[in-house]
Amino acid sequence: MSELKPIALQLYTVRELLGVDFEGTVRRVAEMGYIGVEPYSGMPCALSAAADLFRELGLQTFNSHVPFPDEASNDAIVEIAEAFDLSSIAIAMLPPDEFETIDSIKRVCERLNRAGEFSRANGLALHYHNHWWEFKRINGKATLDVMLDELDDSVGLQIDTYWAQVGGEDAVEVVKQAGERAPLIHLKDGWLDAKGDMAAVGHGAMNVPAIVNATADTAEWYIVEQDRSNNDRLEAVQQSYTYLTANGLARGKI
User: Fold this and answer.
1) Which pLDDT value is given to residue 197?
2) Are 208 and 189 in contact (CB under 8 A)?
């Protein structure tokens, strides 16, 4: 059986709390037992201060969401990568209208391939993080099929399993198809409503054990994320951690 993979938190989950008390919120996450954190672009804290805090708390920063690599953002991305000592970056999203046709999806892939060249030149692996609109079928062909065909092998996918399911695909089959192209797996849960609130991992409609089983040999990290919730965010973060560790699906520090 494959070794259990580590758990991280995408800090966008607690963005409002970070704006009020960045250090206190991150300390709470570390105390829960999370092994790593995934920063996002525009966090309410100076890069150097955030990086120092993560190191103090032993929180690994293996990847960060960043702006789309281009002439306007490349310097900022290098600064982020150096501050967090990153080996990997991810583009959080591209707008839905860029995935309307097969030709537009191919153009997206061309842009991602160019961004991948910049990333590799700076010692970084590039990944694209999906939402639900990338999983429509066009003339019977799935967007993911087109992207896997058109993207350079060096450009990876950060599969957000919840959004893949919301988009109408079976998240388990999606991660199986992506395989080693998707080493960073986002785990979130809820009731498969694109605009609705979300639940702690293990407390919604997602078949989390099946996703973990399907990625046991290809995932490097499981990243908990929650975009919206009616519940206390830190409570949901704790519940997600407890569910994953208590059920032997991933490992934390505690």
Assistant:
1) 94
2) yes
